[in-house]
Write a structure and sequence with these properties.
The complex is a heterodimer of chains A (901) and B (70). Chain A contains 37 helices and 11 strands. Chain A folds into 4 domains: 410 residues, Sodium/glucose cotransporter, CATH 1.20.1730; 77 residues, no CATH class; 111 residues, Helix Hairpins (Orthogonal Bundle), CATH 1.10.287.130; 150 residues, Histidine kinase-like ATPase, C-terminal domain (Heat Shock Protein 90, 2-Layer Sandwich), CATH 3.30.565. Chain A is 68% helix and 6% strand. Chain B has one domain. In chain B, a hairpin with a 2-residue loop joins β1 and β2. The chains are: A mainly alpha (901), B mainly alpha (70).
Amino acid sequence: MGIEWVVIILSSAYLGLLFVIAGWAEKNANKQWLSNPYIYALSLAVYCTAWTFYGSVGRAANQGLDFLTTYMGPILMAPLFWLVLRKIIRICKAQRITSIADFISARYGKSLFLGAFATIICILAIIPYISIQLKAISSSFRIFSADVAGSKGLFFNDSAFYLMVILAVFTIFFGSRKIDASQKNTGLITVVAFESLFKLFAFVVLGFYVTYGLFNGFSDIFIKSSELPYFERLITIDPVDGYGDWFWLNILSFLAIILLPRQFHVAVKENNDENHLKKAIWLFPLYLFLINVFVLPIALGGNLLFPGNSVDADTYVLVMPLAQGNTFLALLVFLGGFSAATSMIIVSTSALSIMISNNLMIPGILRSEFLSKKLNPQLNKVVLRGRQLMIVVMLMLAYLYYKYIGQPFPLVSIGLISFVGVAQFAPSAIGGMFWKGGNYKGAIASLTVGFLVWMFTLVLPTIVNAKLIDATILNEGLFGLSWLKPQAFLGVDFSNNVSQGFMWSILCNGLAYVGVSALTSQSIKETNQAEVFVDIFKYSTVYESAIVWKGQAFITDIKNLLSMFLGKRRTDLAFERFSDRNAIEQGTIEADFRVVNFAEKLLSGAVGSASARVLMSSVVKEEEIKLEEVFNILQETQRYITDNKELKKKSVELETAGVKLRQANKELTKLDELKDEFISTVTHEMRTPITSIRALSEIINDNEDLKTEERAKFLDTIVEETKRMERLINQVLDLEKIESGKLEIPFSTIHLNDVANESVRKVKQLISEKGIALSTNLHGKLPLVKGNRDRLVQVILNLMSNAIKFCDNSNGEITITTSTRNGSVELSVSDNGPGVPKDSQKLIFEAFYQAKNQTLKKPEGSGLGLTICKKIIDKHEGSIWIENGAESGAVVAFSLPKLKL
Amino acid sequence: MSKKVVTYLTVIFVAFALALHYPFIAIANKPILVYGFPAFLIYLTFVWVLLIVVGFLVVRKGTSDDTHGY
C-alpha cells in the first residue's frame, strides 16, 4: 500500500473523528462544562488557517519577520476585547444579529441594500480564501504522492473535491441545524476548539523536532544561518520601507480579527457568556505566541537544509521530516495543516451561508411575488434548506476558484487580499458602534469607495497576473493615466502592494464615511438604531422598549408570521414567556410596541434583521414616527431605567426603615411595660408609709389615754414617714422633669474638685456622727468641665449617702477621688462595704432596683437616687458606672468630658 | 469588571501598540545576534510575553474585584 493511501485513510479517519466529537458535543450541549472560556478562546484560534500552518514558514523563509504582522494586530486587539467585542456581543444578543453583514445592515436602519452589499463583499473576499485552504490541502497531499492527485485531472481524481463533499456534509450537519441562527452550535464550536489544539500540537512537535532534533537548539540555528547571504534581511525589518508596511499590516490584522466573517461567527454569534472574553484576553495571545515560536527556526532550518530555493518554502514543514525519513511526523504535520484548513472552511462556510440566506436569498424571495406565494406555506424549510444549499454552493465556488483561477497565487497574497476586503467594514461597523452620527448614506459611501479602491489596487493586479486581462492597465494606469496605476495609486509606490492597497482603501473609505455622514442626515429608524447600538449597555435590559414603534397590530397575525419560521410550538412558548415577563394579559388582541419589537427580534434570528423588518411591516399597520417621538421615548426608557434603579434603592431603604421601626416598636412596648411597672412600684412604695401613718394616727386617735412618750414616738414616726413620702414624690417629680426635658440644667465652667469639696462639707457632720473615716484624693491639675454645679453636688451627695448606707458598720471608710483619663474627668466614691454583685452592676441604675431585689437588705431610700444620678450625668454627656474595689467595697464613679478650649 | 480595569486594559493597548511600532522597535531592529538570538526577536518575544502576563494579571484583578462585589 502506497503512502498516499495511508494519507487518504488518515484524513478520512480524522474527519470521522470530527463527526464523532461534534455529535458527542451536540448530545451534551446543555452541560455546563462544554460552555467554558477555554473552548471559547480556542475557537478564536480558527484565525490560524492553513495559511498560518504552511504560509507563515514560507513567508518567514523568503521575507523574514513580516509574517508576524498577521499576529501583531490580534494580540493588540486582545486587551480591547472587553471594550469592543463585548459591546458587539451585547448588541448582537439584544437584536439577534448573526453575521457582520447583518450587523452593518441593522445599524443603519435595517437596510436590505447594505446587508446585501456587505454580503457580496464577503463572498468576493472569502471564496478565494476558502479556495486557498483547499489548495493547501491538495498541495500538501501531493507532496506524499505526485501521482494520485493532480489539479489538472478530472474532479473525481482530485482529493480536494472529495474533501469538499465531506466538509459540506459536516457543515450542513453541525453548522446549520437550527432555523434560528442565533442559537448555539455546540458541536461545531467544540470541533473548532479541538482542531485548534490539534494544529498547535502538530506544529509545536515539528518545531521541537527541527530545533532540537535536526539542530542543537534555537541559537544553533540562528548562528548557523547567519552564514546565509540574506540572513540580515530575515531577522530585521527593512528600515526604509519596512516600518510603514509593518504599521499598515498590523492595523489590517487588528481589524481582521474582529471583522472576518469566521471570527465574527465564533467570537460573537457563538459566544455563550461575555465573561469568557476575560480568559480570551490573555489566552488568545498565548496561543498565537505558541504557534509562532517555531516559525522562524523552521524557516531558517529549511533554508539551511535546502539551499538555493531547491524546495518551495511553503512546503518546508512537510518536506523537512520526509527528507529525514520521518514519515510519522510528516503525517502528523499533514493532519495539523489539514485541521487548520478544515476548521476555517467549516466556520467560514456556515457564516457565509447565514449571511447569504439572510441578506440575499430571503429578501429575494420576499420581493418576488411569485416565489413568496409559492413558498409561503413552508418558509421555514426554505430558509433552512436554502442555507444548507448555500453551504454547498460556497464550497463549490471555492473549489472552482481553486481549480481554474487561483492556482498561480501563493497562499499569503490571497489571504491578505481577503483581509483587506473585509477590513472595509471597519468604518461603518466599528465607527457606527461608537459614533451616533454615522448614517446610512455614509455607510453606503464608505463601502462603495472602500470596495472600489480594494478591487482596483489589489484584486485587479491578481486578475492581471492570472492573465485574465491585459497587463497594460498595470503598467500604464487606468485610461492611460499614470497616477491611476493600481500598484502605484496616486503615484505613490510602496514596496508592499498589500499595505499600499490597504492604506488607500481604508483611508478613502473612512473619509467617505465621516464626510458623507456629516453632510447628510439620518432617517428616524436609523437614529433609533444608532442610539441603541452606541448606548447598548443602557438599553440591553429593556431592549423591547427602546425601539420606537407606532401603529396597529394584532397578536394573532404576528404569531402566524412567526410560526411560519419558528414553528407553532416554539412561537407559543416564546410568547408565553414574554407575556409573563412583561405582565401582558392572556387574551390580549392588539399587540403593543413591545410585542412587535420582540417578534421582530425573534424573526431576526431566523431571517436576519433586514428581512425581519420587511416581514413585520407586512403584517402590521405602521404609522409614521416623528423624530421627537424617538427622542421622547428613548428619554422615557432611560428615565425608566434610572427610576427603576432609584426604586430598587428606595425599596432597600424602606426595608431598613421597616426593621428600625419594628425595633422601635419593640422598645416602645418595653418602655410601656416599664412605665406600668414604675407606677406600680411607686404606688407600692407610697402605700407602705401611708399604711403606717394611717395605723399610727388611728392608734393616737382611738387611745386618748396613750402615754405622752409613746404618743411623741408615734408622732415622730409619722413625721419621718411623711418626710420619706415627700422625698419619694420629689424624686419622682425630678425624674419625670429630667426625662421629659422640662428640667433646665444651665451649664457653666466648673472645677470638679470644688464640687467635691462642697459636697464633702455638706455631709461632714453626718459622717463624723456615724464614725466613718472620710478621705479625699483630689487630682492636683484637674482640667475644667462644663456642668451644673448644683446637680453635680446632688449626684455626689447621692453617691456618698449610698456609701454611708452600705459601708462597714464599725470601721466605715469612704474615699473620694478625682482623676483624668482619655480626655475626660472622673470622680469616684468608694466604700468598704459588701460591694455589688457583678450581675447587678448594670441594673443598679434602673428605677427601684433595690426595691425589686429582695435578696439585698433593704436600706432606707426611695430607690430612685441612682436613676436620677444617671439621668443627670447623661445630660452632661458623661457616663456613670459601678465596680467593686480592689479589696472590698463598691466604687461608684462618673466621668465628664473635659472642657474643650 | 470595573471601569478602572477597563481603563487599565485600554492603557495596556496603547502602551503595547507603541512598544510594537516605530520608533520603539527601531531600538532593537539591528542585524545582530545576542547570545545567539536575533536582537529584534528577543525584543518582540519579551513584549509579547509581557502582554500575556499583564493581561492575565489585570483580568485576574478585575475578576476578583467582581467576586468581592466592588
